[in-house]
Amino acid sequence: MRADRLVSLVLLLRQRGRLTADVLARELEVSTRTVLRDIEALSAAGVPVYAERGRHGGFALLPGFRTELTGLNHDEALALLAAGSGRGEQAFGLGSALASALRKVVDALPESHQARSSDAAQRFLIEPAADLLSRKMVTEELPDSTMVEVRRAVLAGHKLRIQYAATDQAPQWRTVDPIGLVTVRDKGYLLATRSGEDRTYRLSRVLAAEALPESAERPESVDLQQIWQQRSAQFRGGGSDQVTVVVRLNPARREELVTTALAVLTEEPDADGSLRLEVTFQDARHAEWALWQLGTGAEALGPQWLRTSLRNRAATIATRYEEPPER
Length: 327
Fold this sequence. Notes:
This protein has four domains: 60 residues, Arc Repressor Mutant, subunit A, CATH 1.10.10; 48 residues; 94 residues, Roll (SH3 type barrels), CATH 2.30.30; 78 residues, Alpha-Beta Plaits. 41% of the residues lie in helices and 24% in strands.
């Protein structure tokens, strides 16, 4: 770990020039004292790093201390830098590793490519933290220690012991055979089997994990895309709580509905220009919530219990706003 940090420190100084100990500590996610010890270690190893005193001082490398690698062209480097600017950095707890890797990518470029690629990457923004309406994207916070164990078991092919908090259940420990990791819309999933049965676990609900020494029972090769599609189909087609709803919809709100629903069973245009869809939701609460979010842009045509529930909710809101608020 320290060797990686020392490399990252050198790369930061190469790419940005003079930096203070506080800035280096923030970038490397360590204390200022650790940075000072690392600077001493680099100097002892012969790396030409020196300190500049004064208000605008800091640490820097002697000019010309660098190596070049010409294997990446401008477009290849730009693709990597643009990908790293998005929210993918949060996937599976690999944010700091991605930041370190991108520093190495930039440093490996010839000087003629470095500035051009970095400037061009600033023109791309992938999946910002909020949309135009300032609605924040909710990301799952996964403890690094937990994700390290999960990744270790997945990559090494070992059994994994997890403490998992299923919906409306107390956390329980279970041992699984991990197959792979999937991230979809900022949500992470562990695909696994347990006693030979397919299991899909939300990573945000894994409270603790331990990679075991025993080998996992799983095939040598895997097609995660195919497995994910199969499990997605099983999820949409099963579950005793799932409900089917017929909706009349403003076409402009279609994307919101289909993104929320589990599946779209049928879809056809109405004579008035609206759309009529038959969709499934996870349960009654999910259906009511999804239709309420669409406001007047959608009307639930059936089942009747959903229309009644939405009407009662709207009546409660209307009643609350009939009179001026009490001062």
